Amino acid sequence: MDFSLPSNHATLAFGALLVITVATRTLAVTVVASALALIVGIGRMLEGVHYFHDVAAGALLGLAIPAALTAMAGAKWRKNRGNVPNG
After folding, report:
1. Which of 4, 10, 42, 82 is 20 to 30 A from 33, alpha carbon to alpha carbon?
2. Is residue 49 a contact partner of residue 1, using CB atoms and an 8 Å limit?
3. Is the Cα torsion angle 78, 83, 86, 87 positive or negative in sign?
4. What secondary structure letter does DSSP report for 47?
5. Are 26 and 8 in contact (CB under 8 A)?
């Protein structure tokens, strides 16, 4: 097993989880997406291509980047919302 930090599969799966959660805001969809992201991460370890810390780092990265981008976009949207003329 080679050291490969972070797991790209876990990064993408958990990033998709966050995007799906924000986009749908539905508990059932979030639970299914969470289960699928966990299956991807566990699968990478069971296949022997990643260690736990590779998958954990990928999951954290996959959650952090979309969360930060969403927060920045929301802040910019709230700031600009008051600058729109009443057309």
Report:
1. 4
2. yes
3. negative
4. T
5. no
